[in-house]
Specification:
By secondary structure, the protein is α/β, with parallel strands linked by helices. It has six helices and five strands; from the N terminus they run H-H-E-E-E-H-H-E-H-E-H. It has two domains: about 40 residues; about 120 residues, no CATH class. The strands form two sheets. Strands 4-3-5 form a three-stranded parallel β-sheet. Strands 1-2 form a two-stranded antiparallel sheet. The chain starts with 12 loop residues before the first helix and ends with a helix. About 20% of the residues are buried.
């Protein structure tokens, strides 16, 4: 049977929207992968960051204490990058007890681990996403995020504190994955 251009398509609007959504998703994936591949090629070729990211000689200092010789202590109210405490097991941390203040009066039902995105470095306690999630759920999602942490540090922090609750959220984003590769 021949089809003429003026005849209506037999494809329904739901099918058409589904195909459009799949198309846009695939285009986004192709663009994201292309950006990552170009970034990797630029990095490996030396066009971006011609020096290695980690330079041990840059971190050498005279009189510095090793992690094992420093007890958990307060440095100052300002701290460096929000890291006010040094924990002998984890390194630098934002809070002495390992977590940010949650909503008052809630019992713990879960915990969140990650970097500055989880911690909410540039927002107040009540604006961080674990705090907001706690309010929505009606129970506290404890915020164990620390700015600059990688997955390995977040996991070590989980092993140290083993928080109460049935759910453990490990927030991962693109920057955290790059940090893991650079380490």
């Amino acid at each position: 049977m021949m089809s003429f251009p003026h005849e209506r398509s037999r494809v329904g609007p739901i099918h058409r929207h589904f195909v459009e959504c799949v198309f846009y998703f695939l285009m986004f994936a192709v663009i994201a992968v292309s950006v990552e591949v170009c970034s990797a090629i630029a990095y490996w070729s030396g066009l971006v960051l011609p020096q290695p990211i980690y330079r041990p000689e840059y971190f050498d200092c005279s009189g510095c204490k090793t992690i094992n010789s420093v007890e958990a202590q307060s440095l100052s109210h300002s701290g460096f990058m929000g890291w006010d405490y040094h924990d002998p097991d984890l390194g630098w941390d934002s809070y002495r007890n390992g977590k940010r203040v949650g909503p008052p009066g809630f019992s713990a039902c879960g915990s969140a681990f990650g970097d500055s995105f989880t911690h909410g470095d540039e927002v107040r306690d009540n604006e961080a996403w674990p705090f907001r999630l706690s309010e929505l759920l009606g129970c506290e999602v404890e915020n164990f995020g620390v700015g600059g942490y990688g997955q390995d540090q977040a996991y070590l922090k989980y092993l140290k504190y083993r928080p109460k609750g049935q759910v453990v959220l490990v927030a991962m984003n693109q920057e955290m994955m790059r940090r893991n590769l650079a380490a």
